[in-house]
Design a protein that fits this description.
The protein is mainly β. It folds into two domains: 73 residues, no CATH class; 78 residues, Beta Barrel (OB fold (Dihydrolipoamide Acetyltransferase, E2P)), CATH 2.40.50. Helix content is 8%, strand content 41%. Strands 7-14-12-9 form a four-stranded antiparallel sheet, with no helix packed on it. A four-stranded antiparallel sheet has the order 11-10-8-13, with no helix packed on it. Strands 1-2-5 form a three-stranded antiparallel sheet.
C-alpha cells in the first residue's frame, strides 16, 4: 500500500482528535508511527514540504516519526518558551496539601525553584513535587485525585 502526504495528514488528524495515544503502521518500504503528545501543542513539520495541521489549524501536539528507506523524518518543534513538568513517579496526583485546603498553584501563578506544585501519593507516602525553574503556570493537565504515570505531563510552565 502506498502512502501519500494526504493519507498521513488524515491519520494525524484522527490521532489528534481522538483518545488514541499511539498508532503504528508498517509496510514493505514504510514504517509510520504517530504518537499523541499531551504536553504543548507543537507544529508538525515535514522536511522539504509542508506543515501538517488539524482542522483547527493546529497540530494537536502530535509527534510523528516516519522511517523509510529514504530516512525521512517528521518531528515536533516545541516552543522554547514553555516547559512541561512531568510526574517523577507513578501515584495519585493531589493539587492541595489536604482536601480542605487551597491548591498549591493555580493557572497564572508565578513560581520559582523550590515552590511546591502538587503532591503525588505513592505507596501511602505523600511526595511533594517542587518547581525546578522560574515561570508561570499556563495549564494544569491532571485532575485532582487522578492516577498518574511516570513521565506523564502535569503542568505547562511558561519560562521567564
Amino acid at each position: 500500500m502506498a502512502f501519500n502526504v494526504e493519507m498521513i495528514k488524515d491519520l494525524i488528524r484522527i490521532v489528534s482528535s481522538s483518545d488514541i495515544t499511539e498508532l503504528a503502521i508498517e509496510c514493505e518500504d514504510l514504517s509510520l508511527k504517530i504518537k499523541r503528545d499531551t504536553r504543548v501543542d507543537g507544529v508538525v513539520t515535514v522536511p522539504h514540504s509542508e506543515i501538517v495541521h488539524d482542522s483547527r489549524g493546529q497540530s494537536g501536539g502530535a509527534e510523528v516519526d516516519i522511517g523509510s528507506k529514504k530516512q525521512e523524518d517528521m518531528k515536533v518543534q516545541e516552543d522554547e518558551n514553555f516547559i512541561t513538568i512531568t510526574s517523577p513517579m507513578v501515584g495519585t496526583f493531589y493539587r492541595a496539601p489536604a482536601p480542605d485546603e487551597k491548591p498549591y498553584v493555580e493557572v497564572g501563578d508565578r513560581i520559582k525553584p523550590g515552590d511546591a506544585l502538587c503532591i503525588i501519593e505513592a505507596m501511602k507516602l505523600m511526595n511533594e513535587i517542587e518547581a525546578e525553574t522560574e515561570g508561570r503556570i499556563i495549564k494544569i493537565l491532571v485532575e485532582n485525585s487522578a492516577p498518574v504515570e511516570y513521565g506523564q505531563p502535569l503542568f505547562i510552565l511558561e519560562k521567564f
